[in-house]
Amino acid sequence: MVYPSLSFDNGSPIHPVSAMDYLPVESLRALQLHRLKATVLYAYERVPLFRRRCEELGVEPRHIKTLSDIRLLPFSKKIDLRDEYPLGLNGASMLETARFHCSSGTTGKPICITNTPDDIAVWQNGAMRCLAMYGINASDVLQVSYGYGLFTGGLGLHYGGEGMGCAVLPTSGGNTERQVMLMRDLGVTAIACTPSYFLRIMDEARKQGVDFRRDTKLRHGIFGAEPWTVEMRDNIERETGIVAHDIYGLTEIAGPGVAGDCEFRTGLHIWEDHFYPEIIDPETLEPLPDGEVGELVFTTISRRGTPMIRYRTRDLTRLRTEKCPCGRTMRVMDRISARSDDMLIIHGVNVFPGQIEAGLLRVPSVAPHYQIVLSSTDTLDLFEIKVEVTQEAFTDNVGAMENLRRKVLEAVKSIIGLTPRITLVGPGTLPRSEGKIKRVIDNRRKGQ
Ligand code: ADP
Ligand code: ZN
Predict the structure, then answer these.
(1) Per-residue pLDDT tens for 145-177?
(2) Mutation test of ligand 1: which of 194, 222, 275, 336 has the most ligand atoms closer than 8 Å to its C-beta?
(3) Which range marks the domain in which residue 398 is found?
């Protein structure tokens, strides 16, 4: 089999780091079981909360005999990490710990995760396998515009890029003017950041008169850390001529590099030799068969710093049943287009921001910048979508704008079945982001 996107100086079509991607399924399952057993035993001995919950359920490590026995184990959630702040779920001593990472908590207290040197190596391996899958190698110049620090984005891609032998440009987020200048001057071929920050970079490039195709060597975007639709991907690729790859990860499990898409774009391959996935029904908590949409649950089967067992991510997806034509044996999940927490209930209807994004971006002349504003009067919920018009289409011709507004309304309505108020705004009007963007302003609960 030939892997057209991978070619290396040593003549081998596959980078050595990708070898595990093709592990025969039986070997993969045996490896997973071996690692699962070891992880359960380790967590049972080192994490009191896990042990207590196992005891309540009457489960002991010796009961894990097959992979499906994972169902006997208790779930864990973000709230556990918060309740046990800072290090209650941690299994490693300070001597064994190499690095902490923290992620934002919705209620103020962050969650803290410890990584041993081996955990960092596993994470780096995941990020490298993603980069190799995207066709990125030592000849690439990788600009890492994810934030560096407690957030896993920057350091995750940084070590991934260095591991692949790329020339890494650690710009972190912000100072967008300089980002564009360096990208052009240093011949950057790949950039890693949130898709929303890349939109901001696109704006800045336009402002500086920089045309991606003409003035830069950029060929790859490595985008993740927030939901983004296929429509957004198409928009970015059309505007810039780059290939927009999807990378998935979360602090609790590792960081970016838990999963990524291959050139067939069937979804995201999960590096399940380290991160064991399940899909559950978020209401009944029952495991769902492959092919059904539910909440993604991960068990880290190699991690020792903070081992996470049956961690409920709140991300919604499904595991695909079809084999991917690329030949990788690692299972594929659908792109994460929604997080259960992001679901809005508007006039009694469940709506995900991604559905709105998909509708908006199907209309030519609409720029990929929008904001969903919810507010309420005494009797009514008000639902407004502010959306930017592209520079080319923006005009003071009232009739033309009204036509466009109607098209946008129809596109959104056909997907969500509701009739929001559509407000068209000029280019550059709505807020931009340097990290994860907040596109929903929900004022409904205020004052209640
Ligand atoms: P948090 O946002 O919870 O503070 P993280 O920075 O660890 O913490 O972000 C992890 C979350 O980001 C994931 O659970 C998921 O919701 C989202 N995410 C990460 N990568 C992607 C991606 N490629 N597509 C969609 N969502 C993603
Ligand atoms: Zn594939």
Answers:
(1) 999 999 999 999 999 999 999 999 999 999 999
(2) 336
(3) 343-442
